[in-house]
Amino acid sequence: MAGALLEMRGITKTFPGVKALDNVNLTVNEGEIHAIVGENGAGKSTLMNVLSGIHPYGSYEGEIIYDGQECRFSSIRDSERLGIVIIHQELALVPYLSIGENMFLGNEQVGFGGINWDLTYQKAREHMLEVGLDENPRTLIKDIGVGKQQLVEIAKALAKNVRLLILDEPTSSLNDEDSLNLLNLLKRFRAERGITSIMISHKLGEIAYVADRITILRDGSTIETLDNTESAVSESRIIRGMVGREMVDRFPKRESHIGKKALEVENWTVYHPLYTERRVVDNVSLNVRKGEVVGIAGLIGAGRTELCQSVFGKVYGAKISGTLKKDGQEITLDSAADAIANGFAYITEDRKGDGLVLSNSVTHNITLSRLQLVSEKGVIDKDKERHAAEDYREKLNIRTPDVEQLVSNLSGGNQQKVLVGKWMFAQPDIMMLDEPTRGVDVGAKYEIYSIINRLVGEGKAVLLISSELPELLGMCDRIYVMAEGRIVGELPVEQATQVAIMDLIMQASKGAKTTWTN
Amino acid sequence: MDKLKTAFSKNLKQFVMLFTLVVIIVFFQLMTRGTLLKPMNVFNLINQNAYVVVLAVGMLLCILTGGNVDLSVGSVVAFVGACAGTLMITWKWDPYLSVFLCLIMGVLIGAWHGFWIAYVRIPAFIVTLSGQLIFRGLTLIVLKGLTLSPFPKAFMSLSTGAIGNFLGFLDPGSGLRNFTSLLIGIIMGLVFIFLELKKQADRKRKGYSYDSLMVTLVRGLVIAAALVYFFWLLACYIGTPVVLITVGIVLVVYSYLTSKTVMGRHIYAVGGNEKAARLSGVKTDKIIFLTYVNMSFLAAVAGLIFSARLQSASPQAGTGFELDAIGAVYIGGASAYGGIGTVGGTLIGALIMGVLNNGMSIMGISIDMQQVVKGLVLLAAVAFDVISKQKISLPFFTRLFSRRKAA
User: Fold this and answer.
1) Where are the domains of chain A?
2) pLDDT tens for residues A419-462?
3) B chain contacts of residue A367, beta-carbon cutoff 8 Å
């Protein structure tokens, strides 16, 4: 076994309010494929961003030893000069440029008086051959599939003389055949050229197939590194490492009074709004009862947000089919306004992107979704509005000197509470909360949990999307598990464990795994 | 002290704008040796700038919905003027019916723009640029390249001349040409002070943040005094311009619309964050559509005011008006990205533009130089806005500073 190519020692990285990485150590040997696994938010991508210089030297603590030298990258260019190339989950290709142009973007083959296109395309063709991509290098990126785009990214890395290739969820948008193709390519590079790879993945089957060693991260810390070469590491072993944290009493208790079915979704299918042949939500059926908190577990990209947004007045998706029932009555919701009028609320996961109007005051945000409650004939009763805002400020303990304060001046946790208050103000019967505690500190989390308990106490039905399994286990009465657009399991909370849920998610991609076994 | 500071920083923009307006007025008053505030010039100033205020209010709403502008308003002004000329002069139709039809025409033009912008989602810049060409062309076609005049008296009286001295019998012998005008000013001043005091008392009673009585009173008195002075100037000449009625109605209606109604709130929400607004059940398409319908409606109003003032329908009317309107809105403190801006600010912006135009013309500064100055003022106004928002953490300046320190 060759020596260490890369050593990251004691890496600690703090974002305002959050410790994303806490004394992480990682050793990658020359010529190996090293997998990094962990739950969403465990710090995998942050660690890779530190390594590639996206988070420059000085913004983190700890040291990076690469090829025997200590490195202090101040930008991604510095790391690329040493042959460290990162390929992100969201591909960084320009759709309206050709394969060749993309491959040498920022690394143009400049000749005398401009770009040497002959050389560009000739080199492009060579690298494309190496990755087994049979296309004309002048074809536009938008005209080739996602699988081939991924190959272009890798060919682009080869053009930069890559020694250490970092792939962040490389197969998340690929089908099984393309995924297998990609994994075999990594193996071939390792064998033929000694290229070292680091691969972040959620798909444990793939990892077992391709990785030499596996490092598990959890809550920003390294848990362990497992060797996959001597004897194969079992998936349950990896899962145990990923979720094995102690449960502390972080959730307020509630007495549950579960009533009749408030929301029923049947055979719900949604297609992607742009790629209309891609099925994002696949024949989903679920129900939520009054006074019940129902969770949806799943990985990012499982279709949970898309499900809720399509239910909420079809604000997402195309070719939506299926039936929707509220209190047993079939209803059709064609817009967010319809959904609100019928007692639905959807609290978005992206409070800055599509949740709040940051340039407006706390008051204006809270009343926006149901101004008719504080207005008459289209004219706003400012006193009534103000009272409503003060009321929610008090109820939700929103810390602001004044409800006339702009929301942009509030902290993340308080903004989140404004968002929740906004939807409580709308007086819904069914609340869909999408990652309601993301980016919120522990204290504010507890407060939001208490609000959820109060809501179901009032007989509202709550559908809770969360990527934090402990949160779902702590808050829900029942949990659906979603993977690849489908519901792959339903567990009452008594039977739900983190391992059981992860198992269900992994089972969903098992079908593909069997084809990889050597 | 701390309270004063926050009150000041909260209203910093308005203070600075008002202060700028006063400085500009004083400057030109001195430079023109008192011509600027001569009663006749003030009267002309109002007549010259009435259309800018009307257009700027419409433009404010467009800009609020997301920094979009309407480039077609100059051409729409000309086209509506041409329609008015054809109806009243060529066909000799009833002036009131003609005015009504012209306003309907404005709404239809707005619906045309609004359809493409809101429902087909073509950028407003492109749709209204196309409108600028289309309606300028149609103006030339309708007028066959000629100027039509004169308009009937009944039409002209809608927006030119002065309000008669119908309360002149109350004049205790002031020697003013139009005593009624002074009375209007005094009444408006008193009403203003009363409203300010009432608002202050209400806020205090309800436990909201409020300014001290002293601040309220001083502010009320200063503005009331300015109002009385303004109308006294007009009283020294032939009286209050009729067009002020239209402008006043537009200002009151749209202040109310933007600050007090659901519709107004939705406009701000769409501009502040369209996605969030849509998820909150705001019919964003409809709001954007109506904004452009409204813009062309107000362009039609401005077109009628303008052709009455010119006393003719001319094919070249309204050229460049869109830029005056857009400039007024931005100088008035609206955000170039939408969601922020007020009718009051827009009025001040329009006045700054108007006084600059008028003052420089009196001083005999050439048109070319005037454009340079207006361009710089616009840039300065927006730059002030952008820099003050970045809270002096402007990377460029800090870098400049730190480099100097190192050296």
Assistant:
1) 4-83+163-243, 93-160, 257-343+428-518, 356-426
2) 999 999 999 999 999 988 876 666 677 888 988 999 999 999 99
3) 265
* Same fold across A4-83+163-243 and A257-343+428-518: yes
Interface test with A, best of B204, B210, B262, B283 (most A CBs within 10 A): B262
**Interface subset of B 337-366, CB within 8 angstroms of A:** 339-340
B-chain CB neighbours of A340 within 8 Å are 280-281
CA distance B247 to chain A (A): 22
* Residues whose CB is less than 8 angstroms from the CB of residue A56 and which lie 6 or more positions away in sequence, other chains included: A73, A74, A75
For residue A358, the chain B residue with the least C-alpha distance is B272
What is the CATH number assigned to the segment(s) A4-83+163-243?
3.40.50.300
Does domain A257-343+428-518 sit in CATH 3.40.50.300?
A: yes
- CB distance from A375 to chain B under 8 Å? yes
pLDDT value for A142: 85
On whether any CB of chain A is under 8 Å from the CB of B208, the answer is yes
Tell me the pLDDT band of A41, cut-offs 50, 70 and 90: low
Q: Which of A:195-234 have CB within 8 Å of B?
A: none
Tell me whether B146 touches chain A (CB under 8 Å): no
Q: pLDDT confidence of B313, banded at 50, 70, 90? A: very high
